[in-house]
Amino acid sequence: MWLLTLFSLVLALVLPHIQAMHMIDPQSTLDCHRRLYSYTVTQRDSQGRTCRDTINVMSCWGRCDSNEISDWRFPYKRSYHPVCLHDSRELTTAILRNCDRDVEPGT
Questions:
Q1: What is the pTM of this model?
Q2: In contact, 41 and 53? CB cutoff 8 Å
Q3: Which of 11, 20, 48, 56 has the highest Cβ tally under 10 A?
Q4: Residues 29-68: pLDDT tens digits?
Q5: What molecular function terms (GO) are annotated for this protein (predicted)?
Q6: For the segment 68-94, what is each residue's pLDDT rounded down to a tens digit?
Q7: SS3 per residue for 3-54
Q8: Higher pLDDT residue, 95 or 84?
Q9: CA 69 to CA 77: how far, in whole Å?
Q10: CA atoms of 38 and 41, how far apart (whole Å)
């Protein structure tokens, strides 16, 4: 018996509000943004029959204005590299709805 276990990311990002994707210019933004990604997943049983479905996972994307400044002390530079971070992760199990005929239970 197979169970498909998926990790979905639950985000609470730096931004206090969420902007609509069509309002964000990817060429000029320097912030972290939430985005819903869709994936098509497939699970096979021992006979090769499959179950498949589309799952949605919330994640983040963005660019950061980073820099390094030389310094006479070790490590000879001062770095500033902000990144988008996830606040938490949540383990989720998805039940795949589109299965071949006679697929083994639990696939």
A1: 0.52
A2: yes
A3: 11
A4: 777 778 889 999 999 999 999 999 999 988 877 777 777 8
A5: hormone activity
A6: 888 888 888 888 877 777 777 888 888
A7: CCEEEEEECCCCCCCCCCHHHCCCCCCCCEEEEEEEEEEEEECCCCCEEEEE
A8: 95
A9: 5
A10: 10
- Looking at the DSSP bridge assignments, the partners of residue 78 are 69
Residue type, 83: V
Q: Coil, strand or helix: which one is 21?
A: helix
Q: How confident is the model at residue 99 (pLDDT cuts 50, 70, 90)?
A: very high
From the number of C-beta atoms within 10 Å of its C-beta (0-12, 13-18, 19+), residue 11 rates as: buried
Q: Answer whether 92's CB lies under 8 Å from 6's CB.
A: yes
Dist. CA 49–CA 103, nearest whole Å: 6
Reported as type and span, the H/E element at residue 16 is none
Q: Is 94 helix (H, G, I), strand (E, B) or coil?
A: coil
Could you state, in order of their start, the residue ranges of all structural domains in the chain? 5-16+23-99
Residues in the chain: 107
